[in-house]
Design brief:
680 residues, alpha/beta, Alpha-Beta Plaits, Rossmann fold, 4 domains, globular
Length: 680
Amino acid sequence: MPASAGAGLFWGLPMTQPPAYTPKHLIDKILGSRSALQGERKQVTVLFVDVKDSMRLAARIDAEEWHRILDRFFAILADGIHRFEGTINQFTGDGVMALFGAPIAHEDHAQRACHAALLLCEQLRPFAQELRRTRKLRFGVRMGLNSGEVIVGAIGDDLRMDYTAQGHTVGLAARMQQSAATGRVYLTADTAALVSDFFTLEPVGKIRVKGVGEPVRSFALVGAGGVRSRIEASRARGFSRFVGRADEVARLEAALRQALSGHGQVVGVVGVPGVGKSRLCQDAVDRWRAEGVAVAEVHCPAHGRSLPYGALRDLLRSSFGITTDERPAPSARKVRARLKRLRVARPEDAALVLEFLGLPHPSFPLPKSAVDARRERLFALVCGLVQAQSALEPTVLLIDDAQWLDAASEAFLTRLVDAVGWTRTLLLLNARSDYSAPWMAASYHQQLELSPLTADATDALLHDLVGDDASLAELSALIGAKAEGNPFFAEEIVQSLLDQGVLAREPARMRLLRPIGEIRIPATLQSLVASRIDSLPEPAKHVLQVAAVIGRSFSETVLRRLLESDAFPADELPAALRTLERADLVHLESEEAETRYRFKHPLTQEVAYTVQLQETRTQRHEAVARVLQSLHEDRLGAHAALLAYHWGAAGKSHESERWRRRAALRVTNIQLRRARPPRA
């Protein structure tokens, strides 16, 4: 099955349900989102699709017949786009414009768009062949992709979403589409930078675009590559130094020893995105594989939730040693040979597994039982295979990014956890902190929580990434402060600086090419953090965005007063704050003089702040300044600097300067008092 499709029929049930226009769960999320209705900045990938020479084709046939052709064409487009949770923003007469990453943010929006484009090419090919055969029409389609920032605007009563572009994001996607040859998908360098690790691209050259001074570098999307996950991409580029996890490695080794003794173990490694869960697990299974332990692994992509049985299928393929580029016949032989060796599968069981994997199988009559019964039979068979494998040799099963498991595979996982007890199997999973499942109650499940790297470990990582040249000391300190113990954040910031031409990698060292200035959030991190924020319930998301305007640390009293002016129900605030704490986005900082909270990571506050429209931020800064003045009338001098900042951010330069002078005067007075000699 092509990696781009990930869909088909499983015993008669469609693996996705093509929605008519906008998927219902997205409609519900949008209508319940105050920020989506008011307007918000989003990192997205824009897809344009149209019919090449549509006017010429329409002139050759009856208008009603052309309408039927386009109707079927749009149905195919809607199915492919919605399968990867894209949203059709507008119809262009003979095509569509779709957005991935808006109105709901996706950390892998560019990958989703590329998968959708490849799937559309695959599904439109037989449609075009049919039209050529039956109506002598040369029906050809072209597509264009571009990634960047857009503004999500108001939504009308008809649920039509209006988007306006910033920085030619939408316009460049349209130009890519207009430049593409029939049957090709063109994309810009901005999209290529986000997907080059995961897809095969072909340089097209530079395309001149009206309104853009320099020609735009463009690429053709050829197909999906062998890399599917972030950890696989990191391995392909070369892992950075593995630091600061000695205790966690020791716990994994202890769990493996228990499993080797016949006491099957389930270990769940949990933590916030980027903290190093996948790297810890990958290093462990690579080491164990080299030591002779049988390993099967599956890496769940972020869009995997929309591909039923995808994770189970990948786990089986890994268990049977089937590679992504292998032809069906050799793969089928591997499956049959392995089942014969394990001696737990009857001929009809082998046919069941082969059919599930989409591989050729003997014409053994499969009973026409109910779908649920066939699923249960498959689950029982696979669990039996795991137990039989364990009897032959110790086995490690790795499920990476379990939070992206589809519902069907997660149902299987519950059965698998029950099956590994008293076997020589270690089931190792990693997931984000907010992931939970009933199987976690198993007595042989242990949870390993991964904390941010210590300061020493972060320094060691930055030494590996940047080097120890004295000229880069300030840069390392800035990156360390921005990443704050998150290794993936540190790696992405360094890579972004290389891409921007701020840093250059030379044979012996890194070299700074131009002054550092301000470190911008890489698009990868912006999308990752924004997707976490968008996954929150609407009250919690709204509270987080208001708190982000107050600052990295914020008072509950100030927050409550701001929300009152926002018509936010006061009784919902405690629950919203608890939700943010459970999601590891904020934590309780102090309850002494006043209740204060703090953002767990500076990038969370920065993204929650920057996704808001400038107009919204300006109004909220002014509201913060007024609330601070009202609450601290008796000690305004102590808050003068903070008031100056908020008035300035609100665009009130006169007020800002007044409080800045007062803050400077207060500092001077403090210094003078300290300089006076003590009284006799």
